[in-house]
């Protein structure tokens, strides 16, 4: 019997919205027509409380899991089960649907708020294509997908929601006026004295940045596509400031074979690769073609007018619309049941079938990352180095790059030191991982994440007593279920089984959906000769994560004794 350690270096962080934001209904008092038309746009409908979800049944053969969308009164639920050899339902799990992500123009994904306060992306989504159909959420078409365990981060919510009061309170609705016009508190209090940002009066570059704060994503997964700058909160971007002062973006290196990748949030990314954009970046923006206050796409006439503002002679008499040939619709690679307009303007459309069905590609990328837009900041090498290692894409070159940048720039906070520690852990170098965890704690002694990572590294190195002390410090700073899970393991390794049992019970009380904590609780119960309790804990871990091999092995071993 043995406890199972999770990976803890990349723990999420809580956030609260920035001050100065108001209820967008205040904007509508003075701007009723704009507010009315904007309310019908896709941006205004990107996040909402669930009102109606069609009941459905769906079977995912790759993971052998059945899903059903159910309605009970005014509430909606997603239910999952498997069947045993006698065709009985097993591993039944059901979660309430609390919110909807997506306008429905292309798709809708559903969100559950767990008792721990986490927001969980649900594994089944609705796609508009072919009249509407259910399929797995993007990234879930795998035998061992995350099921009901994919946590939605603040960075994810940023591009779908307005300005939540806090993570555990009102999450707001879709994108509102203030995402493009800035905080409205001063302006609504004194409209004639306090100006609001009018993006049309910004420089062309800053106008683009207002759109790109959400519409620039170089890759939805597999690489660290962007890193927020130190000291910047999730919702801290302000219209009018350079986007690079808020976050830096990265891309696959040239020659990697990813040059023509096309994903669902690639409008800004692909547009900037266009010759048309590059030749007219001093005057071309997203609003050249799109009116952000209006719903859906503009008419073909509007698009043609935008094209003919430059292409006057050659295409003055051309029929049809320019977009269908020069910006064709394509099936996206990350959301394979969605079709979007490719905003990379091309002279001739590709000859292949751009709408052909495709499967998700889960092959990991191993190679260099580069800046999408090279920044002028003196600390740029630090961010570029961190990008190499955060997803393990380029560890061999990235580790010495990051170590050099840390020694030269000595940034504040724990984050980049933990990046290096985790990179060393991935390579199996426990000694250097421990060294950089200690440096992270030294740099940010109030960071529960840093103390948790240090305790984990110490535990893996067999330094149990010091691990307990570090993890108790993490618990004092922020007693989350993952911290308590690791501390429970450390207590068990120190033969403090009563402390281990009490701590792991508290972990599953805080977050009853954490399979790892249930597994480790089972190990401790087994150590205390509570076979029935251990079996129940192992079964709960398997119910939460049917493909959780360590829990199945522990259960089989227990039942064989």
Compact overview of the structure:
This protein is of the alpha+beta class. The chain has helices at residues 25-30, 32-39, 154-158, 178-181, 185-189, 204-215, 267-271, 275-279, 300-308, 323-326, 380-390, 395-409, 415-426, 430-443, 448-460, 464-477, 481-493, 497-510, 515-527, 531-544, 549-560; strands spanning 47-49, 56-60, 65-72, 75-83, 89-97, 99-101, 107-113, 119-127, 133-136, 150-151, 226-228, 247-252, 329-331, 339-341, 369-371.
What does this structure look like?
The chain is α+β, with helices and mostly antiparallel strands and 561 residues long. The chain folds into four domains: 165 residues, no CATH class; 94 residues, no CATH class; 91 residues, Tetratricopeptide repeat domain (Serine Threonine Protein Phosphatase 5, Tetratricopeptide repeat, Alpha Horseshoe), CATH 1.25.40; 83 residues, Serine Threonine Protein Phosphatase 5, Tetratricopeptide repeat, CATH 1.25.40.10. 37% of the residues lie in helices and 14% in strands. It contains 21 helices and 15 strands. The strands form four sheets. Strands 1, 6, 7, 8, 9 and 10 form a six-stranded antiparallel β-sheet that branches. A hairpin with a 5-residue loop joins strand 7 and strand 8. Helix 11 packs parallel to helix 13 and helix 14 runs antiparallel to helix 15. The chain is globular. About 1% of the residues have low confidence.
């Amino acid at each position: 019997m043995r406890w199972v350690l999770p990976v803890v270096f990349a723990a999420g962080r809580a956030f609260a919205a920035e001050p100065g934001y108001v209820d967008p209904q205040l904007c509508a008092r003075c701007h009723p027509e704009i507010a009315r038309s904007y309310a019908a746009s896709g941006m205004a409908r990107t996040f909402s409380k669930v009102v109606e979800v069609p009941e459905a049944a769906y079977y995912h053969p790759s993971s052998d899991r059945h899903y059903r969308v159910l309605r009970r009164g005014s509430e909606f639920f997603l239910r999952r089960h498997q069947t045993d050899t006698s065709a009985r339902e097993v591993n039944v799990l059901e979660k309430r649907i609390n919110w909807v992500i997506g306008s429905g123009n292309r798709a809708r994904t559903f969100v559950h708020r767990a008792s721990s306060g986490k927001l969980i992306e649900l594994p089944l989504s609705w796609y508009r294509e072919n009249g509407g159909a259910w399929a797995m959420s993007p990234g879930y078409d795998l035998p061992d997908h995350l099921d009901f365990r994919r946590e939605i981060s603040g960075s994810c919510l940023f591009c779908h929601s307005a300005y939540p009061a806090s993570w555990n309170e009102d999450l707001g609705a879709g994108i509102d006026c203030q995402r493009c016009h800035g905080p409205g508190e001063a302006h609504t209090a004194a409209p004639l004295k306090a100006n609001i940002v009018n993006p049309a009066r910004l420089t062309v570059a800053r106008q683009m940045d207002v759109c790109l704060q959400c519409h620039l994503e170089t890759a939805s997964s597999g690489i660290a596509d962007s890193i927020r700058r130190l000291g910047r909160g999730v919702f801290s971007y302000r219209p009018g400031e350079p986007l690079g002062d808020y976050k830096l973006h990265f891309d696959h290196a040239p020659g990697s074979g990813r040059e023509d990748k096309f994903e669902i949030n690639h409008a800004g990314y692909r547009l900037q690769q266009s010759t048309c954009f590059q030749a007219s970046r001093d005057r071309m923006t997203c609003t050249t073609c799109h009116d952000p206050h209006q719903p859906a796409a503009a008419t073909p006439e509007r698009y043609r007018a935008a094209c003919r503002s430059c292409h006057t002679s050659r295409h003055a008499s051309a029929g049809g619309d320019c977009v269908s040939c020069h910006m064709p619709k394509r099936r996206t690679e990350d959301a394979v049941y969605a079709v979007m307009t490719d905003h990379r303007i091309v002279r001739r459309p590709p000859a292949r079938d751009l709408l052909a069905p495709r499967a998700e590609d889960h092959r990991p990328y191993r190679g260099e990352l580069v800046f999408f837009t090279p920044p002028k900041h003196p600390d740029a090498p630090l961010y570029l180095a961190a990008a190499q290692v955060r997803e393990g894409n380029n560890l061999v070159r990235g580790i010495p790059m990051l170590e050099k940048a840390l020694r030269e720039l000595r940034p504040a906070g724990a984050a980049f030191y933990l990046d290096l520690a985790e990179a060393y852990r991935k390579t199996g170098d426990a000694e250097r991982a421990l060294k950089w965890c200690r440096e992270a704690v030294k740099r940010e002694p109030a960071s529960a994440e840093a103390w948790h990572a240090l305790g984990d590294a110490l535990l893996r190195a067999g330094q149990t007593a010091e691990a307990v002390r570090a993890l108790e410090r993490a618990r004092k700073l922020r007693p989350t279920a993952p911290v308590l899970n690791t501390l429970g393991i450390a207590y068990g390794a120190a033969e403090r089984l009563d402390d281990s049992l009490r701590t792991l019970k508290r972990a599953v009380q805080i977050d009853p959906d954490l399979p790892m904590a249930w597994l480790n609780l089972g190990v401790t119960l087994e150590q205390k000769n509570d076979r029935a309790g251990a079996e129940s804990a192992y079964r709960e871990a398997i119910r939460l994560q049917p493909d959780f091999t360590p829990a199945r092995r522990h259960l089989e071993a227990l039942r064989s004794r």
